[in-house]
Structure formats: structure tokens, C-alpha cells
Specification:
581 residues; alpha/beta; five-stranded parallel beta sheet; four-stranded antiparallel beta sheet; 60% helix
Length: 581
């Protein structure tokens, strides 16, 4: 045996995400065409109508100054009204349709991300801190909605509008169309390069820095009592302040880039107008015979065009942030499950017995047999546990002993199929790898070293083990594990246990976990280091109660503990060596 858990097994931190993995996450974030197209079409029409409104208004005002018969202005008047109403209407429809599509896709994205992460949990998530993982699955996933809203749609809208505008101005005055196209090209290149130089690194760092800050906050909040007791709180708060400062500086650098980018675009919008004046004034008296209203159109349209054109550099900046978030999500939920994690869906091997895949082939009280079983944590190059051979029949109480770091927790995770294994692991003669992991977990249950308690009542912490249990059932099982009187004094089943069981002792948490296991009626119960968080006297009583209570129902118990257990409480003992030095 060797290391006992992911933190001690040489697992590296999260690996960089590949391009294919990032693209896979972005595909999940992009709504399908049938949802996305209506919003895109409305956005394009809204932008086109905004430019058309300015052009028609300028033409109408200038033409009206020439005092023509009103019939020559009626079409322009109708156009101005239509474009004004259409711009607002299509803008509303664009927001409605595009956000509806993005939010619907965000729901699908969340489901897709969680469905991909479930096979990895819990053994495959040891390389990422809980705070950073929470940031990836909440903030980074939320950021992915910006991909269709602030990247794809603005780029597509701006592309269509710029093409239409340049062609429209060119039709009025070819030279003005050319100068507008050149101004847009130079402004786009210069604004993008400037923004990238000033803020590209910050935009890519925002998501990781948010994750780091979330991890620091969670670490301080969860360990506030320990940090205070050892006088380390000030130092940890200084670390937290440093993480916050790094995030603040990155946000400021990004804002600087956005500001400079806006200044560049404003400059070139003015230059495009000046260029239109330069080529338009001679055309008024030239052979082309440019009219006054046409001259005003080619001079003023660049202002409206550049307002929409400003979406392109902004979209590229958002793209860098979105890609960073997609990469972080991809590293948390890789496209393929590590080989050390068993697949949830199992296909029958060609040489497997005919009954190997039947869920009824494993009895309600199976015999568990291990032969030379080994396992390792994802990313580790060396096994965390090797050479385990034992047998558990109904009613057996086996004590698996070994020093700290011997791999006992790894074995517990393996028996409930959170980790895959080498060697042979059979339930009633059926190889466990030919069964779905969920089927194994219906027969084999685990009471962990640090059982998870929800920040809720005792009732809710028990009910999820058997949702049909009545209050009488819950009170009876609490009495069986020695918590009946304790629960009554605290207010009964409605008493709260606090966040992660903060309001109960370590021994009480273990007894609540045992009560859940009894409610779930596991045929084989794995109890991992139940005395780790209690004193010696309470630990002895707890171990006795666990073994006696579990044995009353004829279930098999594997007690994993490095502390001695009296011979009268167990039927067999397996001692394993510690890790090699």
C-alpha cells in the first residue's frame, strides 16, 4: 500500500485545456441556429435601421432646406418614421430573442457541464480546490453566455452592417465609400492591437484570478476558528487581500484597454468624417454632380457606422475572457473520463457470463471478495493501494488495519466504485467492473472519515437515504445508533446540524452517517476511520456501537481503522503494511 488520498498521491494540478476541449465547451454555449437566428436577424435590422435613420434624416433636413414641393419629401418622411419605429422595435425583439436563446442555452449548458462532471466526482476532482471548482462551475459557466450575446452576435451584426454601409456610401459617392472602408480597416486594426497590448493578458487572467480569490475566501471562512486559534488569521487575510488586489489590478488594466480602444475609434470616426468632407466638397461642383443631400449623407453616415463598428474590438476582448472561462471549465470537466474512474455505463464483455449484466444477479446480501486488488488516483503514476485480498460474507465484521498513509481511504473509494481497480473484485461471483457503479453502490455503502452533513435539519440529513421514511422510522434509527435522547434534547428531528455539521461533534456526525447507512439498508457497509475525529474513550464506544448495530441486521461490515479493535467485536482481521519508504 501507499498513499491514502489524492492529495498525497502525486496528482498534478489541472492540466491546460486543449483546443478541441475548449471548442466543445463553446459549442455547448452557442444556441442552435433555430434559436439564434431570430435574434441575429433582429439585431442586424436594428443596426441597419439606425444607420438608415441617420441617413434619411440628414437627407430630409437638407432637401427640405431647398424648399421643394412637399410631394418630393413624403417618401423621406415615411422613411424616417419607419426607420425610427423599426430601430426600436427590432432592438427590443433582438434583446428578447437573443437573451431568451442565450438563457435557454445556459440552462442546457449547466446540465451538460454537470452531467459531464458527475462521473468524475468525487475521486476525479482532487486536483482542483473547492473554491476554484465552485468558481468554474458557477461564474465561469455564467460567463459563457457572453459567447453568443457579446461575441458571435456583435461580430455578425457589425460585419453585415459595415458591408451594407460601405456599399451604400459608395453608391452615393465612390470615393467616400473607399475612404470609409479604409478608415474602418485602419481603426479596427489599430484599436484591436492597442487593446490587445494593454488588456489582453488581463482579460485572460480575470477568470483564473476570480477562481483564486474564491478559493482564498472559502479557505478563510471554513477554517476561521483554526486560523484564529493559532494566530494565523492576519497572515491569511493578508494573502486574501493580495489575491483581491491582483484581481483589482487586472480589472483596471482591462478598463484601460477599453478606454484607449474607445478613444481610437472616436478619433477615426472623426477622421472618416473629415475624409468624407475632403472628397465630398469637390464632388459638389464636379462632373459627378453630387447633390447637397447626398453630400450630407456621406459625411454623417460614418458617425453612425463607427458607433456600431465599436462592437468589434469589444467583442474580441470579450472573446478572450470567454475563451479563458471555457478553458477553465474544460479542465474541470474533460471530454473523456480518466481511466482511473469507472464508466457509469457498462457494456457486457464478449466472454462474460450470461447473467453478469443482470441487476438481479447480485443478491440482496452479496458476498464480497477481493483478490489482489489495487487502485490509483487520477493523474498518479504509482498505485495508491495494491495487493488487497479479503472476503466479506453476510454477518462478517472484518477489521482492516494499517498505518496512516497505507491507502485505506483509497480502498474505501474503490469498493464503492469511485475508483477503478486492478485484480478481482466480485459481488456474489459477479465481477464488479461488469456492473454499473450505481448498482454496486446500491449494495455497498460507505460511511466516510468525514461524513458530509447538509446545513439543514436532522430530518433532512436522514431522509435523502430513504425518502419514504416516516418520522417514526427516523426516530427509531436514531435510537439504534445512540442518538435518540440527544436528538430529543436538541428539539427532535427539526434540530439543525449546521454547515458541514458544525453544530455536532465528530462522534455525533459519525452516528448520523451510520443512521443514514442503516436507512439505506446497504448489504455491505464500509466504515472508514470512524474514530478520526473523536477522543479515544468515545472512539471505543463508537466502534462498538457501529459493529454491534450493523451486525444486528446480518449485514457485512468492513471497518477500516489504524486503531486497535477488540477481538470479540470482529470475525476477522486484515493487517496491511504502510507505504514503502
Amino acid at each position: 500500500m501507499s498513499d491514502s488520498g489524492p492529495s498525497a498521491s502525486g496528482i498534478a494540478g489541472p492540466r491546460p485545456a486543449g483546443r478541441a476541449e475548449v471548442r466543445a465547451v463553446l459549442r455547448l454555449a452557442q444556441p442552435p441556429a433555430r434559436r439564434f437566428a431570430p435574434g441575429l436577424a433582429a439585431g442586424v435590422l436594428s443596426a441597419v435601421f439606425a444607420v438608415a435613420l441617420l441617413a434619411s434624416s440628414a437627407w430630409l433636413i437638407t432637401r427640405a432646406a431647398e424648399q421643394p414641393p412637399v410631394m418630393f419629401l413624403s417618401m423621406a418622411v415615411v422613411g424616417v418614421r419607419a426607420f425610427a419605429l423599426g430601430r426600436s422595435a427590432f432592438r427590443y425583439l433582438e434583446r428578447l430573442a437573443s437573451h431568451d436563446a442565450a438563457f435557454r442555452q445556459l440552462a442546457d449548458l449547466r446540465v451538460g457541464i454537470f452531467s459531464r462532471i458527475l462521473p468524475l466526482s468525487p475521486a476525479g476532482l482532487g486536483g482542483t480546490s473547492r473554491g476554484d471548482l465552485l468558481s468554474r462551475l458557477v461564474r465561469d459557466v455564467d460567463d459563457l453566455q457572453d459567447f453568443p450575446l457579446r461575441v458571435v452576435q456583435p461580430l455578425a451584426t457589425a460585419g453585415v452592417l459595415l458591408s451594407v454601409s460601405v456599399v451604400g456610401v459608395w453608391l452615393v459617392l465612390p470615393a467616400a465609400g473607399v475612404t470609409l472602408a479604409l478608415a474602418l480597416l485602419v481603426a479596427g486594426l489599430l484599436a484591436t492591437v492597442t487593446s490587445s497590448a494593454l488588456s489582453a493578458r488581463s482579460e485572460r487572467q480575470l477568470a483564473p484570478l476570480r477562481g483564486a480569490l474564491a478559493g482564498e475566501v472559502l479557505e478563510v471562512v471554513e477554517n476561521l476558528d483554526v486560523l484564529s486559534a493559532f494566530g494565523a488569521l492576519d497572515a491569511r487575510l493578508a494573502t486574501l487581500a493580495a489575491a483581491d488586489d491582483r484581481l483589482r489590478r487586472a480589472s483596471l488594466r482591462r478598463s484601460l484597454g477599453v478606454g484607449v480602444q474607445g478613444a481610437v475609434l472616436s478619433l477615426f470616426a472623426g477622421l472618416a468624417t473629415v475624409a468624407a468632407l475632403q472628397v465630398g466638397i469637390p464632388a459638389l461642383s464636379g462632373p459627378a454632380g453630387l447633390s447637397g443631400p447626398g453630400f450630407v449623407v456621406v459625411v454623417l453616415v460614418p458617425m453612425a457606422v463607427f458607433e456600431v463598428f465599436g462592437m468589434i474590438p469589444l467583442a474580441l476582448g470579450v472573446w478572450r475572457q470567454v475563451r479563458s472561462s471555457a478553458a477553465r471549465v474544460a479542465t474541470a470537466v474533460p471530454t473523456s473520463v480518466p481511466t482511473e474512474i469507472p464508466a457509469e455505463s457498462v457494456t457486457e464483455p464478449t466472454d462474460a457470463p450470461a447473467d453478469a449484466m443482470s441487476t438481479t444477479s447480485v443478491s440482496a446480501h452479496p458476498v464480497l471478495e477481493l483478490t489482489d486488488v489495487g487502485a490509483r488516483w487520477p493523474g498518479s503514476v504509482t498505485p495508491a493501494v495494491t495487493g488487497i485480498t479479503l472476503r466479506l460474507a453476510p454477518g462478517d465484521r472484518v477489521h482492516l488495519a494499517g498505518p496512516s498513509g497505507a491507502g485505506k481511504t483509497t480502498l474505501a473509494q474503490t469498493l464503492v466504485r469511485f475508483l477503478d481497480y486492478t485484480g478481482s473484485y466480485r459481488l456474489d461471483g459477479v465481477e464488479a467492473r461488469t456492473l454499473a457503479p450505481a448498482e454496486v453502490r446500491r449494495r455497498v455503502g460507505l460511511c466516510e472519515q468525514r461524513p458530509w452533513l447538509f446545513d439543514d435539519s436532522i430530518r433532512q440529513n436522514l431522509l435523502f437515504a430513504r425518502t419514504t421514511a416516516t418520522d417514526d422510522d427516523l426516530e427509531a434509527v436514531l435510537a439504534r445508533v445512540g442518538l435518540g435522547e440527544w436528538a430529543a434534547k436538541r428539539g427532535g428531528l427539526d434540530a439543525r446540524v449546521g454547515e458541514r455539521g458544525a453544530l455536532v461533534s465528530g462522534g455525533q456526525a459519525q452516528r448520523i452517517a451510520l443512521a443514514r447507512a442503516l436507512l439505506a439498508d446497504f448489504a455491505v457497509l464500509i466504515v472508514d476511520e470512524p474514530t478520526a475525529n473523536v477522543d479515544e474513550a468515545q472512539g471505543d464506544v463508537l466502534v462498538r456501537d457501529i459493529l454491534v448495530t450493523a451486525a444486528e441486521d446480518g449485514r457485512a461490515v468492513l471497518l477500516i481503522s489504524h486503531t486497535p479493535v477488540p477481538d470479540d467485536l470482529i470475525t476477522a482481521r486484515v493487517v496491511v503494511p504502510g507505504p514503502a519508504r
